Amino acid sequence: MKKALKEWNATIEALGQGKQTILIRKYGTINEEFLLYPTVSYTLKNSYISSFKDEHQAFVKEHSFPKKEDDKVEIKYYAKCENIVKMPFKKVKKLKNYYIWTPKHVEYYLKNNNAFVWVLRVYKLKNPFMAESAIGPINFANLKKGPSTKGSTPVIDDESFQKILEYIEQI
């Protein structure tokens, strides 16, 4: 797999540890599967930590920066986008248990626009992969070389994930 979604490392770790199961976006995607490529660009802003709920701030501080070796970054997870649910901004508030950001951050990001809620089934790679830098503002990157996803394990069990998926689809 070579397609990678660039996202804050703290959010990727939350997805990879089952603390978060969705991404809230202003757009959909045609990519059904992708690696989760950790970024750090926003971690340099003073307000970064305040974008996350109080109970997750220690976690965020611990996971703000990905493991790096020279100009390579460690990729540990990949995701399958099981569904994208378009919903009005007001309904997004019902999803607060499925992400680690503050409602204020989500509101600021969406600016009262409709949201595209990506329901992700996240898998931990059997072997972490050191990927070359994916530079630029593009949300998705095509890596020159990617890891195998064979032997990867879901971070949330099937039954729990199915309940989450059904809840989000019924909002």
Write structural notes for this entry:
The chain is an alpha+beta fold. The chain is globular and about 40 Å long. Strands 1, 2, 3, 4, 5, 6, 7 and 8 form an 8-stranded mixed β-sheet that branches. It has helices at residues 9-16, 57-62, 89-92, 103-110, 158-170; strands at residues 3-8, 22-25, 33-39, 68-69, 72-87, 115-132, 140-142, 153-154. It has one domain (3-170): Hypothetical protein (Archaeosine Trna-guanine Transglycosylase, Chain: A, domain 4, Roll). The N and C termini lie far apart (32 Å). The longest helix has 13 residues, at 158-170. It has 5 helices and 8 strands.
SSE map:
Elements: E1 3-8, H1 9-16, E2 22-25, E3 33-39, H2 57-62, E4 68-69, E5 72-87, H3 89-92, H4 103-110, E6 115-132, E7 140-142, E8 153-154, H5 158-170
Parallel strand pairs: 1-3
Antiparallel strand pairs: 1-7, 2-6, 3-5, 4-5, 5-6, 6-8
SSE ordering? EHEEHEEHHEEEH
Proportion of residues in β-strands: 25-35%
User: Shape from CA axes?
Assistant: globular
Quick check: average pLDDT?
A: 93
CATH superfamily placement: Hypothetical protein
User: What is the SS-derived class?
Assistant: alpha+beta
What is the CATH-assigned architecture? Roll
Rg, Å, rounded:
15 Å
CATH topology: Archaeosine Trna-guanine Transglycosylase, Chain: A, domain 4
The CATH class name reads Mainly Beta
